[in-house]
Design goal:
By secondary structure, this protein is α+β, with helices and mostly antiparallel strands. 28% of the residues are buried. The chain is 28% helix and 32% strand. It is globular. The N and C termini lie far apart (39 Å). A hairpin with a 5-residue loop joins strand 1 and strand 2.
Amino acid sequence: MAVALPQRSTTISLLPSGGVETGLCHERFQLPARGASVAAARRRVRGHLPAWGFGGDACDAVELVISELVTNALVHTASEQILCVLRADAEVLYVEVADQGGGPVGPSARQAGADDECGRGLMLVRALADAWGDRPVAGGGRAVWAQLRR
């Protein structure tokens, strides 16, 4: 059973001076569950975060986090669509990737061996994020999220 995911939306409040008020920055976009969507998610991050006042290191970290979360949704679920959410306030950037279902338990970081080619994604997320976790999504699926400070 496919779960309908909402379409893309962007909300940004402009200050009277024309600057962006980071407390209200929000981007929500849906991607097809295929390999090319990882790069598309990274491009979205690169397109929005500088305008929201995030510098190079923060952009790099969020780009890597969303890349890992989207990759996990592709590899570990049978989703047709993936929903990504970016929200920023004055201090924190919130990243969330929701899939359409992959199982009754959430993701867990594991210790990859020195020669393993995969298995490090959530270790990277854990290292870069101030907090991360997951939650079930209504109608099936799971959302994995991370919070990073400015």
